[in-house]
Amino acid sequence: MAMFEEQAITASDKAFFKLRKEIVDGVILSGSKLSETELSTRYAVSRAVVREAINRLEACHLVERKANVGARVVSLTPEGLIELYQVRESLEGMAARLAAQNMSEDEIADLNTLLNSQSEEVKTAELYYQEAGDLDFHYRIIQGSKNAYLISMLVNGLYHLVRMYRVQLGMAGPRVTSAFDEHKNIVQAISLRDSELAEMLMRRHIMYSKNNIKAKLQS
Amino acid sequence: MAMFEEQAITASDKAFFKLRKEIVDGVILSGSKLSETELSTRYAVSRAVVREAINRLEACHLVERKANVGARVVSLTPEGLIELYQVRESLEGMAARLAAQNMSEDEIADLNTLLNSQSEEVKTAELYYQEAGDLDFHYRIIQGSKNAYLISMLVNGLYHLVRMYRVQLGMAGPRVTSAFDEHKNIVQAISLRDSELAEMLMRRHIMYSKNNIKAKLQS
DNA sequence: ATTCGTTATTTTGTCGACAATATGCTTTTT
DNA sequence: AAAAAGCATATTGTCGACAAAATAACGAAT
């Protein structure tokens, strides 16, 4: 899996990664308050590094902070999910368009082999694909866009929120095979350098995904 | 002008706004280093608040920071400008689409009166329109999307960078009247609740704008 | 009993100092 | 003379303490 490792240099980095993980995984409950003093004792670091970590989490929309009051983990709502997926549709659509223009032939080949290897897994272990494989696919296209803002906004920003929704709403849906076919079509469009089509297919792919989750949310 | 005032509560807020303004306006040169100690003496605050301000600037892509080394103001490059406008096209296109769906009739009416008032100014004082009027128009549509992520990413994030490019590349272009017509068409699409068309027109509008700036950049 | 005002406590915001890391300079070696 | 090693300096990262603000607790008045 081509999951790029972010490596922590400072103590703030470590605190940030740890906190982010706990929030995304639901260890720290959605909507709960983040006490700076409590966290600093729990992580055995100063309040300064906790503060910096929280600031960074605010930048990725994982916590909300009010001046002189404190920070809370964002609460997951159906409206928030819709809005998140609208932005995803917009940004990842553009990413697919740019990927069709900017990905190297080698990168496209890698993407194809990835899909083929997943093709086997889809028939057997469906769960694996849905979680990691889907992410890997989307990550590669985002990277393939070669657009620094796009990459940063999605990878460092929104995707953790997306994962948070997925984890905490327990997404292990029946959309595995259909999503796989959509992936294949997108890669084909990219292979043909048809940026227009690639964007369109990616947008639809994310729309379907949104509708799928929305349905789950109401059940 | 419906420019929403962000009000500074803490000292970090004030430092953040001040620093951001100086960077966008080019008072602090693009590419230069931001010394925490120097800034803390210049602003007469502690290093902690300067650090927090710099962290926030990093989140809006106005500075780049390396661990244990420091922060530098981003340098403006043609490639960066292109990438920025690609993201703008994507996000503001979606904003226009959502605005067509979600803006109230009153808000649309306001937008129309804004355009009509600008219609006068275009014939006389062209400069005013280009700077403030154009921003006002785009801000209203972004707000009209009613999508919190979209609004935050554009207004708190990318738009300061957009303004930085505009200010420092000296944009007072001859695109005034044509842009005005494009604005009119977008508003009309929104009035008709034609979200598809609104998105398409907005994307083209931003593409034209990009090409205009790109041409200026090479001259 | 409930509401309002006051006080006490907790939490965040800010500060200055120390530790750790990187940068620049001098010295030494080949 | 050039490159490398070591030292000095400056800058960032981290810490604990104090100041300011908000929340909670308490008591008084209606």
Any overview of this molecule?
- Two copies of one chain form a homodimer.
- Chain A is 73% helix and 5% strand.
- Chain A has helices at residues 11-24, 36-43, 47-59, 78-102, 105-123, 126-144, 148-168, 176-191, 195-218; strands at 33-34, 63-66, 70-73.
- The first copy, chain A, has a three-stranded antiparallel sheet.
- Chain A is globular and about 55 Å long.
- In chain A, a hairpin with a 3-residue loop joins strand 2 and strand 3 (70-73).
- The first copy, chain A, has 219 residues and is mainly alpha-helical.
- The first copy, chain A, contains nine helices and three strands.
- In chain A, helix 2 (36-43) crosses helix 3 (47-59), helix 4 packs parallel to helix 8 and helix 5 (105-123) runs antiparallel to helix 6.
- The two termini of chain A are 33 Å apart.
- The first copy, chain A, binds a DNA duplex (30 and 30 nucleotides) through residues 10-12, 35-37, 45-49, 51-52, 67-70.
